[in-house]
Specification:
Rhomboid-like fold
């Protein structure tokens, strides 16, 4: 996997996103002098998506909130999941498309949170992560991949989505943001799957050609 990423992508986008998340977490930790759970007022100060401020003109909060987390457990959980799905998609997609997909689904997640949870302080990468999973799930419903590949990933992907949406109903979790990210990612995957088939096939062929050249020179 590391060889694939090094060849296809000059830098690892997923790790760059994780680095931003961790950096902002450390800044928030220093400001709040907390570790496990940050006060809502500190999160709002850092750029959380909060309806009364966001719709008052601070629309940048819809994006900045995607890189903030409520505490250590929140950060660790999202980081593990983002690394798993992000690393997989990063192999398949153009770097700028991948970045745009992540940011766009994150913004849609924030918009959904504003609509259904106007007075809630909303933060976290999970909306964008659900966007990536929705996008991947959409691709798995098309003819883009082989039956073997679909069988391997389709069931586990939908189980993850369903389980985490269920967990979101049991506590102070912004399920509206999750649904916004999920739906926007799924719709994007369905609409763009014909173009992606050509793009992904080219990237795989390039990688295979590179591997053959390496074997010839070894």
């Amino acid at each position: 996997m590391n060889q694939i990423l090094q060849f296809l992508i000059p830098f690892n986008v997923t790790r760059a996103i994780l680095a931003i998340n961790i950096s902002l977490f450390l800044i928030t930790m220093v400001i709040s002098q907390q570790l496990m759970w940050f006060p809502p007022e500190i999160l709002v100060h850092m750029g959380a998506n909060y309806g009364p401020y966001t719709v008052a003109g601070e629309w940048w909060r819809m994006l900045s909130s995607v890189f903030l987390h409520a505490g250590l457990i929140h950060l660790l959980f999202n980081s593990v999941i983002l690394y798993q799905i992000g690393t997989l998609l990063e192999v398949m997609l153009d770097r700028w498309f991948y970045i745009t997909l992540y940011l766009t689904t994150g913004i849609w997640a924030s918009a959904s949170s504003l609509l259904f949870n106007y007075g809630v302080v909303s933060i976290g990468a999970s909306g964008a992560i659900f966007g990536l999973y929705g996008f991947f799930a959409a691709l798995l419903t098309t003819r883009l991949f082989s039956k073997t590949f679909k069988k391997q990933f389709l069931k586990s992907t939908w189980i993850f989505i369903g389980l985490n949406l269920l967990i979101g109903t049991m506590g102070p979790i912004d399920n509206a943001a999750h649904m916004g990210g999920l739906i926007s990612g799924f719709v994007t995957g369905i609409l763009l799957s014909p173009w992606l088939k050509v793009s992904i096939t080219k990237r795989i062929n390039r990688f295979q050609s590179r591997q053959l050249d390496d074997k010839k020179h070894s």
